[in-house]
Amino acid sequence: MKEQFETGNKNVEYIAAGRNGNNSPSYKYHGNMMNWPGFKSLPPFTGLMVQTGKGEKTISLKTFERKTSFGSRPEIRSALNAVVTIKY
To answer: Distance between CA 64 and CA 79 in Å, rounded?
Structure first.
């Protein structure tokens, strides 16, 4: 993704190190993944989008983790945004 940012792809955002707890710089793509170079040649996949930490819009949402059906359910500091299956 770094290469796309460096070539001027306007949909790729640079995220500086230290922002949102990241220890190294990273990049985020904003746009239709069908337009990403090489995406249409990839096999279908299922992904889970998780927001690390909680922002202004997700601070009131509660997310819990449970390892077994009778286990405790501690709250975690992340928010599940979506489960996505992409087929084309």
So the answer is: 9
Domain boundaries, the chain: 1-41, 43-88
Q: Quote the pTM value.
A: 0.41
The dihedral over CA atoms of 48, 54, 11, 39, expressed in degrees to the nearest 10, equals -10
Which pLDDT tens digit goes with each residue over 23-36? 778 888 888 877 77
Which structure tokens are listed for 7? 């070539």
Intra-chain end-to-end CA distance of the chain, in Å: 22
Mean pLDDT of 56-80: 81
